[in-house]
Amino acid sequence: MDISIVIISYNTAALLDNCLESIKRHTHGVTYEIIVIDNASADNSKSLVGEKHPTVRLIGNRENRGFSAAANQGITKALGDYVLLLNSDTLLRDDSLTAMVKFMREHPEVGGLNPRLLNGDGTPQVPGSSFLNIERWRLNRTHPLKWVSGAAALFPRKLLLEIGLLDEQFFFYNEDLDLSLRIRRAGYSLYYYHEAAVIHLGGQSTRHISGDALWYGYQGGFYYCRKHYGKLVYLIYKTAAVTDLGVRIAVLTILFPVLAGEKTRSRLTAYQRILKDALGGLI
């Protein structure tokens, strides 16, 4: 089998349905399987898969295990030569998987691949971390990347098994940075492949956890820094983050009467929680 498509689902039934339909419509010339891991969705995601997409392999978790752990569940069940980690808020286009697999087979030195990511209106998204990739960003040509985005990323399954799967200490966010770094340290390159396009609507799963998503993002960043760059760099980074958090809290507190609303309240509460936890690790 050429490719195993692993999709993590969390309360995005309609988007998941559209994603699965797009795979069927726009994937030809390669053999593939689809594995959906549902992270205890409260909507009808699981029943939708069973009723409308009976050939999809469904793994239903009793609790939200986060992205990394759920992705690992899919990878360990995968049978394809390549594994595509694909967000449920994506839509495939124009045999993009066929082109991606062809490129990977022709370039065995490539350990991870991002297609051209598009917004819903067709405008481009910068693959991976925009800050870390921007100096190499070229819209209309294939080129190396430092980091791949987990929204739609293709990897050789054998390589993932060799270097280790996603680090489950990352609940949401930063797991793609960690995996990218480990792939490059293993001697493989990462690529942006402009001839394959995937629409990425963005943020549709994490919007359900709002403030928690912020907390997981910061905690993942702290863990990533400590894991790969040592205690000194970790402390410097965390000190900078604490300063930044203090400013954000002050600004939101001052502006709260004007910006009052559940989203602002959730963000302020999250920043306060992150600051408290971060200070606990510094003192």
What does this protein structure show overall?
The protein has nine helices and ten strands. The chain has 283 residues and is α/β, with parallel strands linked by helices. The protein folds into two domains: 3-206, Alpha-Beta Complex (Spore Coat Polysaccharide Biosynthesis Protein SpsA, Chain A); 209-282. Strands 3-2-1-4-9 form a five-stranded mixed beta sheet, sandwiched between helices. Strands 5, 6, 7, 8 and 10 form a five-stranded mixed beta sheet that branches. A hairpin with a 5-residue loop joins strand 6 (110-118) and strand 7. Helix 1 (13-26) packs parallel to helix 2 and helix 8 (210-259) packs across helix 9 (262-282). The longest helix is centred in the last third of the chain and has 50 residues, at 210-259.
Pick out its properties.
single chain, 283 residues, alpha/beta, 2 domains, five-stranded mixed β-sheet, 10 strands, 49% helix
